[in-house]
Specification:
It contains two helices and no strands. It is mostly helical.
Length: 86
């Protein structure tokens, strides 16, 4: 009986404590990995948003080659010019 009280009972508590410690460490590592993954996804999402915003800005702004100089008469069409020359 004394052997059981002195060796087995404290041994069981030590094994139980080790099991709880391993489970707690695994949970902490899992939470850290989840946080790191969430940060990576957030960075990727912000980069995607930046690209989309740049694309929208480019769509809103017409390219420079589409602007006509002020000296060009917009109403004159090449076929109208040919008719006036004849």
């Amino acid at each position: 009986m004394t052997f059981f009280m002195l060796v087995v009972t404290p041994g069981c508590f030590c094994l139980l404590s080790l099991f709880v410690a391993v489970a707690a460490m695994a949970t902490i590592e899992w939470e850290e990995a989840s946080v790191a993954e969430a940060k990576e996804k957030e960075e990727e999402f912000s980069q995607i948003l930046k690209v989309l915003k740049r694309g929208e800005e480019e769509e809103v702004r017409p390219p420079h080659h589409l602007y006509l100089p002020l000296s060009v008469n917009i109403t004159s069409h090449p076929t109208q010019l040919n008719n006036h020359n004849e």
